[in-house]
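Hello forum,

I keep getting stuck at the same step: I have a sequence, I want structure tokens, and every attempt I make locally crashes halfway through. Rather than fight my setup again tonight, could one of you with a working pipeline run this one for me? It's a single chain of 369 residues.
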Amino acid sequence: MARVKDIVKIMEKHFPLKLSQKWDNCGLLLGSSDKKVKRVLLCLDLDESNLAEALNCRPDLIITHHPLFFKEFKTISYSSSQGRLIRELILSDISVYSAHTNLDAGEKGINHFLAELLELQDIKPLFSEMVEKLYKLIVFVPETHIEEVRKAVNGAGAGYIGKYSDCSFRTKGIGTFKPGEGTNPFIGEKGILEEVQEYRLETIVPESVLSLVIDAMLTAHPYEEVAYDIYLLQNQGKVYSTGRMGELENEITLEDFAKLVKDRLHLESIKVVGDKDKKVKKVAVISGAGMSLAPGIPEDIDVLVTGDVKYHEAKNALLSGLAVIDAGHQETEELFLPYLQKLLADESRILGYEIEYKYILNDKIFWSI
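Reply #2:
Ran it on my machine without issues. Output:
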């Protein structure tokens, strides 16, 4: 049976904690990593208003987008809403994991999903907030096990160059070693120098999967002591960013693009900043509240799709020539929940975990008449 730490492992494979902003609070915020899991609930926020609905699902683990708590606190008072919430979660033995800015910046995270939903092409990171380090792994393998070890390291995530997978190189040579006392050699005898036909196998490894690749290599390798080297490379790895940018297939007016946003996000209304007849083609998206990042957006971007746009932020955008579509904070994030549910369910099934995943959509905070 799967445990909380197994679900966390799936989450952090796609949305590593290192992508979180320093001010953020992501990870396992409440509960035990060893708790057994049969049901997982996904939601944007967890507060008293939706706790009853959450409890009805009888989850073992709740995964939220916005952290259960951001700041440190010295007391947990049951007279406060947060205190009552924490008390109820503990009494119900529910663990809580939060994925916030790491979910925003993930390679297939909320912003990438939003960009695809809006039919953008040639989608790229909007900023260069973090560049992943790359390593070269070199391991020496007897020719009898070269393919087994290669499959193991590539299967664990090594060997990706752009859109190509299973990239590696091998060179044949002769390896020498002399087993000493207390050894149990796969090949040879104690005290006798051995010469073995071996391959030097090398491949590229992203930092995020380095430990997984090493574990897979050691498991597949037949030798008692494996000879391998790891070098930090100067090659640029994947770039991670809170937002995304891309292009529409054809240049259209801001008004028509606003209608597309409204339609694809199934919204009753949106706010638009800019001349409705302005031609737009290059688009930036930042889910949630992204206007604080607007000053760093490339100058050739025609329009930004985000939420929580304030009056003076809108004025500044107009002065800079950037059109803005305010599609709502919640509205640009909650659309990701069904996708995340499917991702976790599919990966759990592959791993043999029998887990039920559900999500709840928060009630709208704002209303209008």
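Residues 337-350 form the longest helix (14 residues). If your local run keeps crashing, start a new thread with the error log.
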